[in-house]
């Protein structure tokens, strides 16, 4: 077992991100994207940050799938999955680009999806439904590069006007599948190591604590407040990607 050489503040920041990821996976989906820039500070590199975070996300996804298993709406994902695969392949190729180029691209994708969702909610019918291809490619690309597909998927599922429980459950199934699938992409690019897996193993219990906190929280958030919170968190996280 190889222990990562991290400072104390990096371990604490990583633990805070792990708790937030658990919370996001079972209660507040948009919160996970806020950890993207924080994990970069923890690991020190954006590309390795995405790879190190992926197994942590899988732990949270498993809890989300288990707890909300009766609420998932798989049909909402069927037209999306092929396009997500295309986006993941493009994201795998783009991992070779410089971070300074990639981060504004991701931020722009997220902000565009949020803007479309807000426009549709304020003026139903004025803005046509976003094609699954647009959301799918964007989600696959963003999740492979920086685990930043949360806002894209939140926007897509909110567009479907799902109840909060159904939104979280469907998103959990989607991200469990995607996060497991992209691990080989990180491995091929040399972004996974014994140190990364040790870090993930140490963070797993913290994710579990966050997951149980998310179960408690979601039951106490009104539907309208939940939808608004998703859009606010998506916007904030997108702005972080421009830094």
Tell me what you see in this structure.
The protein is mainly alpha-helical and 243 residues long. Helix content is 77%, strand content 0%. The protein contains twelve helices and no strands. The chain has helices spanning 8-26, 31-43, 46-67, 75-78, 81-94, 99-122, 132-146, 150-159, 164-181, 183-188, 194-218, 223-240. Helix 3 (46-67) packs across helix 7 (132-146). The radius of gyration is 17 Å and the shape is globular. The N and C termini lie far apart (34 Å).
Characteristics:
mainly alpha; about 240 residues; about 0% strand; 12 helices
Strands, helices and their partners?
Elements: H1 8-26, H2 31-43, H3 46-67, H4 75-78, H5 81-94, H6 99-122, H7 132-146, H8 150-159, H9 164-181, H10 183-188, H11 194-218, H12 223-240
Helix pairs in contact: 1-2, 1-3, 1-11, 2-3, 2-12, 3-7, 3-9, 3-11, 5-7, 6-7, 6-8, 6-12, 7-8, 8-12
In short:
The chain has helices at residues 8-26, 31-43, 46-67, 75-78, 81-94, 99-122, 132-146, 150-159, 164-181, 183-188, 194-218, 223-240. With 243 residues, it is an all-alpha fold.
């Amino acid at each position: 077992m190889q222990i990562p050489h991290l400072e104390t503040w990096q371990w604490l920041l990583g633990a805070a991100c792990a708790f937030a990821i658990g919370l996001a996976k079972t209660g507040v989906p948009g919160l996970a994207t806020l950890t993207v820039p924080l994990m970069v500070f923890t690991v020190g590199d954006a590309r390795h940050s995405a790879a190190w975070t992926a197994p942590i996300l899988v732990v949270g996804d498993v809890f989300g799938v288990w707890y909300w298993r009766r609420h998932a709406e798989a049909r909402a994902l069927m037209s999306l999955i092929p396009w997500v695969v295309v986006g993941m392949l493009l994201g795998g190729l783009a991992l070779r680009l410089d971070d300074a180029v990639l981060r504004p691209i991701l931020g722009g994708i997220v902000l565009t999806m949020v803007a479309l969702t807000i426009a549709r909610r304020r003026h139903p019918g004025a803005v046509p439904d976003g094609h699954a291809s647009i959301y799918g490619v964007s989600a696959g690309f963003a999740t492979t590069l920086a685990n930043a597909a949360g806002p894209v998927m939140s926007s897509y599922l909110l567009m479907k006007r799902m109840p909060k429980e159904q939104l979280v459950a469907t998103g959990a199934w989607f991200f469990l599948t995607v996060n497991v699938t992209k691990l080989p992409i990180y491995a091929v690019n040399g972004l996974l190591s014994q140190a990364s897996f040790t870090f993930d193993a140490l963070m797993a219990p913290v994710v579990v604590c966050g997951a149980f906190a998310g179960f408690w929280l979601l039951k106490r958030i009104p539907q309208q407040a939940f939808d608004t919170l998703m859009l606010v968190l998506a916007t904030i996280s997108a702005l972080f990607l421009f830094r």
